[in-house]
Structures are given as structure tokens and as C-alpha cells.
Amino acid sequence: MGVVDIAVIGGGIAGASLARAVADGRRVLLLERESQPGTHSSGRSAALFSETYGNAVVRALSTGSREFLRAPPEDFAGFVLTRPRGAMHVGRPGQEAAIREEAEALAALVPSVREIGAADALARVPVLRSDRVAGAVFEPEALDIDTNGMLQGSLRGLRRQGGEIRTGAEATALAPLPGGGWRVETTAGTVEAGIVVNAAGSWADAVAVLAGVAPVGLVPKRRTAVLFEAPGHDVDRWPLVVDLD
Fold first, then answer.
1. How far is CA 67 from CA 55, 141, 148, in A?
2. Exposure string for 4-30, b = 16+ CB within 10 A, e = fewer
3. φ and ψ at 147, to 5 degrees?
4. Would you say 171 and 31 are in contact if contact means Cβ atoms under 8 Å apart?
5. Does residue 239 contact residue 142 with C-beta atoms inside 8 Å?
6. pLDDT tens-digit series, residues 139-193
7. Closest of 103, 100, 93, 84 to residue 128, by C-alpha
8. Using 50, 70 and 90 to split pLDDT, how confident is the model at 1?
9. The 2-9 sheet, strands edge to edge
10. What φ, ψ does residue 66 adopt, rounded to 5°?
């Protein structure tokens, strides 16, 4: 695969967006082990923009991305990547104190977040069981995100700047070069890169070990999400519902 300035391992939204950002004037290669970018977490996310989610760094990145996502540059997407949704963290009877604490904590991050009563929560999502809802924390400014639009915008931008995307290219070995940089062995060939970026997501520890770097404890795990049609209800107007637990 030759010699590049930067090799990015992992073709999800993190790797693709970073590759696009650094490609101006540099030779960049994006390596993805699957047959297409975004196969795992980036293609299976809840597709929700929330400024209350994650640690301080993640929240800052989300807040800094809001305007870009609401009005992306024409050469990135050419269409709006978000739409109003809202999110609701629902608590059961016996969790009233937890609902209040969560509302106070999240309102400190985003002032529009507020506690709502059971009747309000049921009015917003009528299919909830009334005997299982004591109240909720409502985040009105949460947004739906077109995750594929985000990913494809980054991939187009990378290609437009001369970057290369190689799929079916799982990194199998990483070795430092005598003069600096790295040799990356993959199932699709070998590349030498001045800089290697580990953007392998849940598999980042496996890539780190190849480079002789101590793992930090990342483990790929499954998650459960339930998507359903509710006859007689306009589900497009409902907030995303998350159990308070």
C-alpha cells in the first residue's frame, strides 16, 4: 500500500472525521477491517445528539459540534443532519429522588433540562405503562442525527482531499521503523506511515497491543435497543425514551 504521512486505523465516525480533518496537504490512508466503514458502533448508534451525555470532554465536543450539525457546509452534506427529537429519562415508582437528582445534575449542564411529572411523561409517550412511570427528566434540545450523513460527509471530504480508504484491511502487526514512523501490516498489504492513529473504537486495545502499548480495558459489548411502530400514534414526535437505570 506504499508510504503515507498518516494511517488511521478504524473507519467509524471518529476515524473518518479525523482523517478528513488532517488530509489537507497530507497523504492519509484510512484502514477499515470490515467491508465498509461504520459497520459497528457508528452504524448502530442511537443516533441522538445530547449535550448531557458522557464525560466533560465528550460533552464539550458535542456542544462544539451543534452548529456544524444543524447547518453543515454545502461540500460536507448539503442537507440538514439533525431534527428536533428530545430525550426523556423515565423513572419508576420508588425512584422519585433519583429523578430529582438527575434533573438537577443535567440542568447544571444544559439549563433547558427539567423534571416532568408522570402525566406529562405519559402525554409525550402514550404507550408507556402508567403504573411504571413516576416521572421523568426531559431534555428538549436533544436532536436526531443522520449518522450515515455524518459518516459519508467525512469520507467524501477525505477522498476530495486525496485521501485513500482501504476496506478489508485489518491491522495484524505494528512495528516502529528505525528512522521514525511505523510499518503497519494488514490483511490487504503493508503500509509505512509517519503517524498511526488508533481509532478502532471498542477494539482499540487490540490495536494498541500490536504496537506494544498497554491496554486501558476497552471491551466490545452488545447493547439493547427496542425500535417499534405504535399504531395510531405519531412516533416521529416522541422523545427518545431511556430508563433512568
1. 20, 13, 18
2. bebbbbbbbbbbbbbbbebbeeebbbb
3. -65, -35
4. yes
5. yes
6. 999 999 999 999 999 999 999 999 999 999 999 999 999 989 999 999 999 999 9
7. 93
8. confident
9. 164-166, 28-31, 2-9, 189-198, 182-186, 171-176
10. -55, -50
